[in-house]
Write a structure and sequence with these properties.
The complex is a heterotetramer of chains A (164), B (187), C (375) and D (123). Chain B is built from seven helices and five strands, in the order E-H-H-E-H-E-H-E-H-E-H-H. Chain B has 187 residues and is of the alpha/beta class. Chain C has a single domain, classed as Cytochrome-c3 Hydrogenase, chain B (Orthogonal Bundle). The chains are: A alpha+beta (164), B alpha/beta (187), C alpha+beta (375), D mainly alpha (123).
């Protein structure tokens, strides 16, 4: 049940995003179930182009996070706006374990520390990042904690029987 | 998929600091009791709150629970503090800070481990935890443990009172027990 | 305010020295480490160093079932523990498609707003104490103790609540809580006049807060600042109003904002939000619907595969839970969007050029909780 | 004769002796009775829990010096008030009060002058 303003904004967004990232798949998703209106799935690159269009549309970079899918990482960028109707765009990109994506900190200064946190927990090195070093874990830590093969998760141990 | 070892928090050696009574006082028990009585009635805690227990520590200092009644005045610098209240979880990054602050406090000094996190890692200590140290006594010698997550302000006040009894009535009882044991042994 | 541009590099490395406003400092609420580069009394550069209260919340989420993770959200931002607790329950409910009865939604709104009032009391009064006013600190905490008694009546804990369950709340509110909240609202309304006289017109307080730490709208957008810090700069964004969730659409309340964007504006926004929260609680108590307090939910929820993002308005800003589930009882990944994390790093943009004493004021006015930043 | 001459200054001498004994006795008692502790970071200067980055012996802005001068002006103020205290018992009391305020007013003029010159503006 999108309001008229949101429909207009979504159409506008889809056109400007399609023009900025032709190779990305842009799909509308159900806000009630997912929590975001638009999903942009990239595979090669284009993070900075998406970030630039988002900034032009006065969106804010809500959060940057990564998910470790054993054989690859998935970087998730969430943009939200409060100037027009409320609208949230989720950008997803699958990268290899040793890939080095480009940092969007030139466009959004908030990304400097958000990406440092992703590096700190996953070891993903961002290119063109002003000072990529650990932010939360101790500086001399040699482990990346949120990897699936680190510590005790259900991929390293039989988690189900432990819990119940 | 090779499994990297997760650094289970090995307890670092209990951090023993040699603190001795001054030579002039060692022999005289009454002088020592008098000194202890003076020391424990003015316990100045170091304002060193780490996490949720810090809020309950502040609540203990405010009008309702009011720890001023026991002569407890919070101090900002370790140079003027008697008691270090470790209120919250102890991550690895904070260990050197806690040791530095503990060393910078002049003797006689006492430590209260407030909350489950400071006693044993509390709700955050499980097999595979990489971030925290399981308990303040792995780093500094602790006098009083206050369980609770977070413990109520009254529990913190009881902790302070526990320190007061430990260093006054506690010592007197210990001496009396020792004398009784000596007499029984002589018979 | 010294203009930083005029200092050239030659003089910088001569007179500039670094100072740690370190982990243990009365003015850093918690263990926040601000590495200040100072030229005399003026701050040239500020670098917040965090991680001193990191407990690995997100790693813990990956080896616990959803129900076992309930106590964690309240320990992230312990000042708005109830709001985070209900936020986590909302995230799992959206993931599994659980319908929450209206009475439970109302109780969630009442307890969240009570928790917001308690958190704002700390935010504003700690800020005032940072500027040297001790009396409001004691007054604010006195009111806060009443709220803690009320919330303890129904949830059993004072600070770290586990009151929410998937599909509602753990138990119904008692008559004693209902009357106690009514009494508390009347008492609090009479107390606003006291705070008005106690500190809002105090010359020193105004002199130290006006035009200090001004956050412009563009900075706020670029750094992702949300919550009272953003509303102090004139942007009317509140998740309860912009992205209505739970039972908030059924209540009438405004979003107080100020245009100046300085420390005083943020303080006034928080004080005005107290009144709005009181209105919400009153309306919720007036129209409290009967009915069950918890939906029929299996003992262990098993959400379908996929991900979802739920945002809610904590006392510090737009917090959020991004949950990726792979169809089993154990979450695959939980990412917590901490409003304090984004609000904190706007300091690096607005602090240079201020005096050292103003840093304490700016940091207090942004009102962060450290374990929420470090997670 | 000499002893009588000294009579007035006896209280100054007592004042000096007490001023000497009190602090010294505090230090000595503390040294005798206080316990000793030997942590390794005991003598590290306190900087909120972490090691200080540079030594404190370095250049700093001249504005601090100006603030020190302003403090000096007020401190000398108080110093001169001591003799006024002595001469207070003789007079009826009101005229001394006016003299006192004139004296204070003249000294605050120094502060107003410094204020106009912009000492308090940090440059």
């Amino acid at each position: 049940m999108l309001t008229a303003g949101q429909k207009k904004l979504l159409v506008e967004l889809k056109s400007s995003l399609a023009e900025a990232v032709p190779e990305g798949q842009i799909s509308e998703s159900d806000y009630a179930k997912k929590g975001y209106h638009l999903e942009v799935r990239l595979d090669k690159g284009g993070l900075r182009r998406v970030a630039q269009t988002m900034l032009d549309k006065r969106f804010m970079l809500e959060t940057v996070t990564a998910v470790d899918f054993i054989d690859s990482f998935e970087l998730v960028y969430l943009y939200a706006t409060y100037y027009h109707q409320y609208c949230r765009v989720l950008t997803r990109i699958r990268i290899a374990k040793d890939a080095q994506p480009y940092s969007v900190s030139a466009i959004y200064p908030a990304a400097i520390w958000l990406e440092r946190e992703v590096y700190d927990f996953f070891g993903i090195r961002f290119q063109e990042h002003p000072d990529l070093k650990r932010i939360i874990n101790p500086d001399d830590a040699d482990y990346f904690p949120l990897l699936k093969n680190f510590g005790k998760t259900k991929f390293t141990d039989q988690i189900d029987d432990i819990l119940c | 998929m090779e499994v990297k070892g997760s650094p289970i928090c090995l307890p670092s050696k209990g951090y023993q600091v040699e603190a001795q009574e001054s030579p002039a006082v060692v022999g005289f028990v009454p002088v020592q009791d008098l000194l202890n009585l003076a020391r424990v009635n003015a316990l100045w805690p170091l304002t060193f709150g780490i996490a949720c227990c810090a809020i309950e520590m502040m609540a203990a200092g405010v009008a309702r629970f009011d720890w001023d009644r026991f002569g407890i005045i919070p101090r900002g610098t370790p140079r003027q503090a008697d008691v270090m209240v470790v209120a919250g979880t102890i991550p690895h990054k904070l260990v050197s800070t806690i040791k530095t602050l503990y060393d910078q406090m002049p003797a006689p000094k006492y430590v209260i481990a407030m909350g489950n996190c400071a006693i044993s890692g509390g709700p955050f200590s499980y097999d595979g935890q990489y971030a925290i140290v399981n308990g303040a006594d792995k780093i500094i010698p602790v006098d009083v443990y206050i369980p609770g997550c977070p413990p109520r302000p009254e529990a913190l006040l009881q902790g302070f009172i526990k320190i007061q009894t430990k260093y006054t009535k506690g010592i007197i009882d210990a001496n009396r027990r020792a004398e009784k044991a000596a007499r029984r042994a002589k018979k | 305010m010294l203009n930083i541009k005029t200092i050239d590099d030659a003089t910088i490395n001569q007179r500039v020295y670094q100072l740690n406003l370190g982990p243990q400092h009365p003015s850093t609420h918690g263990v926040m480490h601000l590495l200040l580069t100072l030229d005399g009394e003026v701050v040239v550069k500020i670098e917040p160093i965090i991680g001193y209260s990191h407990r690995g919340h997100e790693k813990m989420a990956e080896n616990r079932i959803y129900e076992q993770y309930l106590p964690n959200p309240a320990r992230m931002d312990y000042l708005s523990g109830m709001i985070f607790n209900h936020g986590y329950c909302m995230a799992v409910e959206k993931l599994c498609g659980i319908e929450v009865p209206r009475r439970a939604e109302y109780i969630r709104v009442i307890t969240s707003e009570l928790n917001r009032i308690a958190s704002h009391f700390i935010g504003t009064m700690d800020y005032a104490m940072g500027l040297g006013a001790i009396t409001p600190f004691l007054w604010g905490w006195d009111d806060r103790e009443n709220i803690l008694d009320l919330l303890e009546m129904i949830s059993g804990s004072r600070l770290t609540y586990s009151y929410g369950r998937f599909g509602g709340v753990r138990n119904d509110i008692t008559k004693e809580f209902y009357d106690g909240t009514r009494k508390f609202i009347d008492r609090l309304r009479s107390r606003f006049w006291d705070y008005e006289n106690l500190i809002n017109q105090n010359v020193i307080f105004i002199k130290r807060s006006k035009e200090v730490g001004v956050i412009s709208k563009e900075d706020a957008l670029a750094f992702g600042v949300t919550g009272p810090t953003l509303r102090g700069s004139g942007v009317k964004y509140d998740v309860r109003k912009n992205e209505p969730y739970s039972a908030y659409p059924e209540f009438k309340f405004e979003i107080p904002t100020r245009k100046e964007g300085d420390c005083l504006a943020r303080y006034q926004v928080r004080m005005a939000e107290l009144e709005q929260s009181v209105n919400i609680i009153e309306q919720a108590l007036d129209h409290l619907p009967p009915g069950p307090v918890r939906a029929k939910v299996p003992r262990f929820v098993t959400p379908p595969e996929g991900d979802c993002y739920v945002t809610f308005e904590s006392a510090r800003g737009a917090a959020g839970f991004y949950i990726v589930s792979d169809g089993t009882r154990v979450p695959y990944r939980i990412k917590v969007r901490a409003p304090s994390f984004s609000n904190l790093f706007v300091l690096t943009k607005i602090c240079p050029g201020h005096f050292l004493a103003d840093i304490v004021a700016i940091f207090g006015s942004i009102d962060v909780t450290v374990p929420e930043i470090d997670r | 004769m000499v002893q009588a001459g000294l009579g007035e200054f006896l209280f100054v001498f007592i004042f000096f002796i007490v001023g000497l004994i009190l602090p010294l006795s505090m230090v000595i008692i503390n040294f005798v009775l206080g316990p000793r502790v030997y942590g390794e970071k005991r003598l590290v200067p306190y900087e909120s829990g972490v090691a200080p980055i540079r030594t404190a012996w370095m250049q700093f802005g001249a504005s601090y010096y100006l603030f020190a001068l302003i403090f000096l002006a007020f401190d000398v103020d108080v110093l001169y008030l001591f003799p006024v205290l002595l001469s207070y018992q003789r007079g009826t009391g009101f005229s001394e009060l006016v003299e006192l305020f004139i004296f204070l007013f003249l000294l605050t003029l120094a502060i107003v002058y410094a204020w106009r010159k912009g000492v308090f503006k940090w440059k």
